[in-house]
Amino acid sequence: MKLTHTKVWSAAIAVTMSYGTTALADGHTADVYAPYAGTTLVVNFPAHPHYNAVLEVLPEFTEQTGIEVEVDQLQYLKMRERQTLELTKDEGDYDLISYVVFSKADYVYADQLENLAKYFMNPKLANPKYDAEDLIDGYVQNIGVAGGAKGYLPGPTGSLFGIPFGSETSVLAYRKDIFEKHGIAVPETYDDLLKVACQIPEVEPGMGGMASRAASGHQASHAFLLHLAPLGGRVFDDEWNPTINSAEGVAAANALKTIVDCGPEGSQTFGPAEAAASFQQGTSAMFMDSIAFAAGFEDPSKSKVVGKVGYALHPKGVRRGSQTGGFGIGIPSNAQNKEAAFLLMQWLTSKEGDLKVAMAGGNPSRFSTYANAELNAKYPYSATFGEALKYADPDWRPIIPTWGKINADIGTTMSQVLTEGLDPQEALDGVAERARAIMDEAGYYTWQ
Amino acid sequence: MSTANANRLTPYLFLAPAGVVLAVALFYPILYMIYASFLDWNPSQRIGEAEFVGLRNYVKLFSDAAFLESMGVTLKFAAVVVSVEMFLGVGLAMLLDRNIRGMSLLRTLFILPMMIAPIVVGLMWRYMYHPTVGIFNKTLKSWGFESIPWLSDGSWAFASVVIADVWQWTPFIFILSLAALQSLPSSAIEASRIDGASGWQQIIYIKLPLMLPVLIVTLLLRLIDSFKVLEVILVMTNGGPGLSTEILSLRINRTASEFRELGEAAAMSNLLLIVLLVLTFTMFIYNKAQDARVARQRKAEQEA
């Protein structure tokens, strides 16, 4: 998709740079934080490897700034439920929240997240050395910006509501030893991928080709969409007409079916944890999902495949398009310590903060962090992940308020394709028809 | 105010606190839910901001194939589990209604499953059903059989959740039936024995009819409960594969949290409430009829 990206956020920074250098130019960072010393921020983070790493780094923030941070950590779907309630209150308990990417639409639409422009324009708050250009563009667009193209994407009318933090894209993890043993080349394209996925169980009896999510509901939908973007499909066209039942959609459904059929036993009910466990335990030869799982594969206490895993880009279909997902951080409109929350947000996503979190096992949000030599020495796969990010597709799934319902429908229907032999074309025609009704009711065809 | 008037008001005065508690704790939430079912309300809005849409949520439900399927699954699930549990529970009670040493210990052991938290029950069965490392498939394989797709095939998944529910709730019926059996008048049973009734005849003509009032109440309690199972199925299958195990309470849960349609979820809850109310009224009416019959009999006896 072609868009003109006027980056409101970077413009905001440019503004601050011209006004606000005095606050920091002579290195008096303590002065910046002084008015807020003693404040206690309450933040809501998910239970997720990235945020576990953040917890290790937070004491340093308190030490430097005198701002205390109290963390409320929840499983990510529970976190969303809690936030939904919290954000409707007059005075919220949270000063900073981490939100799942698909919450962006709901929160921004309900006017529950602060527009960050005014903070980046405030010379007393914004650090001129923040270097927003260094933030991974695909993530910022996907997670931070709303109000541009199609409403949820960036574009001339968009603005910034959050900063990516703990963002993810997809890569292909494969067993180097197995591939070498049978002289199999690392799949570059989807044709290769599907061929290899079904070749593995033949040459390596008892081992599945690729472990994938497939459980009914969100998981099956996620797995399907993962293949839809690279194979050239989209859920909707630019005018919100469902295009999920196109030839590309059917190809994606068939790809998923092939992968699950040639996958490890019981694949049909795998969630991400089970799929990752299957790869970790050596019962499947490939795993294509979020980069967040990589740290677990290299952890000797959990994994039987330490040192045997290679990482490659998400294979190409008619185009490259890996997923964008994970989390961003934003300031709720009903927060009580917004300025201090911004300082924490800026500190965590600064070059130094990002590197610290990454070294503790988090997912970087900056290109400079991925290029860091120290990080690459500690986590050798970082370079591949940095490369994969160039192809991260912010539009691999729509982030609109009606998505929850459509997502669930795709997921249950896809599960029927995988377990009950429902014909993919027929299944997707059904999804498209129901999606049209949902979109119509929500007013997406008002202008047609 | 005269003393007579004050006297007449006293009982109401004493009842008032209970009435207030009832109104606040029971009627307010129910009325709130009924009101919510007429709204187009998403959780990011306050209830005051939600749009009033009349009966639209209900109309939508009846044309929603997924909801109807979920209703079907719920009815099928309730019918199957309750019949199987009644059969097994009453059967077990008949078998164990005798003086065995250590009976009280056995009884405690038997009711253990219903004391375990539902989430734990769900997790436990999910791991036992695991396709490769679960105990069932491992055992089947070691005996040389094909493994069974417990949770990954629609019909098997339904059977699997039924098995887990039966395991958990048969003890409930067992314990109530056993109590009923042990409180039966021994004179009737002795009389039948003297008349030469066989074991089966005793069960069919004496014990079951005498236990019937208790059994009916047990049945209805279980039926009501089985309409509301959530956690075990949520953990085991999350409604899948497809919609094969998506019972109504799970659908309501998803509608509220995943689809963010609080109004629709409230409408579904109301429909479920109506179904359950009908069941409860049946129970109530049966009890009334039963009481009336007993009273009639007693009257007849007295007259005679």
Structure, described:
The complex is a heterodimer of chains A (448) and B (304). Chain A is α/β, with parallel strands linked by helices and 448 residues long. Chain A has 2 domains: 8-168 and 324-389, D-Maltodextrin-Binding Protein, domain 2, CATH 3.40.190; 169-323 and 397-441, D-Maltodextrin-Binding Protein, domain 2 (3-Layer(aba) Sandwich), CATH 3.40.190.10. Chain A is 45% helix and 13% strand. In chain A, strands 1, 2, 3, 6, 7, 8, 9 and 10 form an 8-stranded mixed sheet that branches. In chain A, strands 4-5 form a two-stranded antiparallel sheet. In chain A, helix 4 links the parallel strand 1 and strand 2 (68-74). In chain A, helix 4 crosses helix 16 (351-359), helix 10 runs parallel beside helix 12 (247-261) and helix 11 packs across helix 12 (247-261). Chain A is globular and about 65 Å long. Residues 1-28 of chain A have low confidence and may be disordered. Chain B is mostly helical and 304 residues long. Chain B has one domain (66-303): MetI-like (MetI-like fold). Chain B has helices spanning 3-36, 56-62, 65-96, 103-110, 118-128, 135-142, 154-182, 186-194, 199-226, 231-236, 248-257, 262-303; strands at 39-40, 51-52. In chain B, helix 3 packs parallel to helix 7 (154-182) and helix 7 packs across helix 9 (199-226). The longest helix of chain B has 42 residues, at 262-303. The model of chain B has no long low-confidence stretch (mean pLDDT 88). Chains A and B meet through helix 5, helix 6 and helix 20 of A and loops of B.
Distance between the ends of chain B: 51 Å
- What value does the Rg of chain A take, in angstroms? 22 Å
CATH topology of the largest domain in chain A: D-Maltodextrin-Binding Protein, domain 2
Percent of residues in helices of chain B? over 70%
Cα distance spanning the termini of chain A: 21 Å
Oligomer: heterodimer
